[in-house]
């Protein structure tokens, strides 16, 4: 089962990725001003993946990737793949698992990991 992960970019826009069962990013969405836009796109993808187009592209460096679009509007770009077969496997994984994918929201977590100082500074001084 894959998962959608919503997060914030440094410029304040929201984005989401679709990660494979193994946790590898398959595609990253365009930037959205509102988190609701991400949630609506995710719902649309989950409920109607057959309405979306996968446009396969080979870049000048010989790597393959795809663009996920609907009605001519590009909504996401995939990671780069070394072969067209691996690209197709990425698309197949989306089609197979997207409807049952969970959605994780990390957009409000500014700091997932605590500061080093707060981890190592003792709350109570020991008297020695």
In short:
The protein has 128 residues and is of the alpha+beta class. It has 3 helices and 7 strands; from the N terminus they run E-E-E-H-E-E-E-H-E-H.
Ranges where pLDDT stays below 50 over 5 or more residues in a row are: 118-122, 124-128
In one word, what is the shape?
Answer: globular
**Residue fraction in strands:** 25-35%
What's the CATH first level? Answer: Mainly Beta
Number of strands: 7
Assign the CATH architecture: Roll
Write the layout of secondary structure elements.
Elements: E1 3-8, E2 14-19, E3 25-29, H1 35-47, E4 53-58, E5 64-70, E6 73-78, H2 84-97, E7 102-105, H3 116-120
Parallel strand pairs: 1-7
Antiparallel strand pairs: 1-2, 2-3, 3-6, 4-5, 5-6
Protein model, in words:
Helices cover 25% and strands 31% of the residues. β4 (53-58) and β5 form a beta hairpin. It has a seven-stranded mixed β-sheet, with helices on one face. It has helices at 35-47, 84-97, 116-120; strands spanning 3-8, 14-19, 25-29, 53-58, 64-70, 73-78, 102-105. It has one domain: Roll (PH-domain like). By secondary structure, it is of the alpha+beta class. The longest helix has 14 residues, at 84-97. It has three helices and seven strands; from the N terminus they run βββαβββαβα.
